[in-house]
Amino acid sequence: MKQLEGVESVSGINHLPLAGDVWGLPFQIEGRPAPAPGETPNAAPRNVYDQDMTTAWRCDGDGSGQKLTIDLAGSTKIGEVGLIPGYAKTDARSGVDRYAENDRLTRVRWVFDDGTTVEQTLDPSPQNRAMQSIRIPVTKAARVVVEIVDVKRGPRDTIAVSELRIGQTAS
Asked: What per-residue confidence (pLDDT) applies to 10?
């Protein structure tokens, strides 16, 4: 398996009854307030695919119904998926462990545009900040949606995904 190249866009969707918005980036989040003029969103969906564990896509609440959508460059054979189920960062100024402080994912549903659906159970332990991957039956897809199914609550009422991986199989 190798990290999939050619991801064209990543977007996040939630089901709150608010107006959608676009931040002037190739990523779209519906149902979240737009950032103030000049403000850079630090919780953008693109953060899950930047190979930086100190950035994350995150939102308020437990994330029920939240989805991340990954559009690939084309139909691709995928054999493994995974993510870091929380905000894998220790705040440089305060020393606060954001991973332990925030909610952490315990179960997600991966949905592929060929109709394949896979559920993944995750270890929510605050000590396990590693990428948690699973092998899946090889599927061919151009779009992958990750939906939050369940979380372990932390003291802070936010959920995050630090990084996400899609493993491409040899052609």
From this structure: 52
